[in-house]
Design brief:
two-stranded antiparallel sheet; 2 helices; globular
Length: about 100
């Protein structure tokens, strides 16, 4: 089942530790707010309520497949500051700044 009709930016993407390598990239279980997921996927997977820093949030767990040729940046946030781990300017230009 496809969760999105088109490629989607992975802003605030959260994953579970079940990441595995695929021929084209990697796959994992990811969580998204239900408004970012197709309604039929939300219905099939269900909405969970989780406590995030004292606030109750709705999430939907989906199996996510990521293609390496679509990744243009990887960053982590520590104490509210972004630390860039990977930046691929060619992919950024080709996929994001078209």
């Amino acid at each position: 089942m496809r969760a999105f009709l088109t490629p989607h930016p992975a802003l605030d993407l959260s994953t579970t530790p079940d990441i595995c390598q695929t021929d084209a990239g990697f796959a994992c279980t990811a969580v998204f707010p239900p408004e970012l997921i197709q309604p039929d996927t939300v219905k099939a997977n269900g909405i969970e309520k989780v406590n995030v820093s004292g606030r109750i949030r709705d999430i939907v767990r989906v199996r996510l497949e990521v293609m390496l040729h679509d990744i243009w940046a990887v960053a982590e946030f520590i104490d509210g500051r972004q630390h860039d781990l990977v930046i691929d300017s060619e992919t950024l230009t080709r996929r994001v700044l078209q």
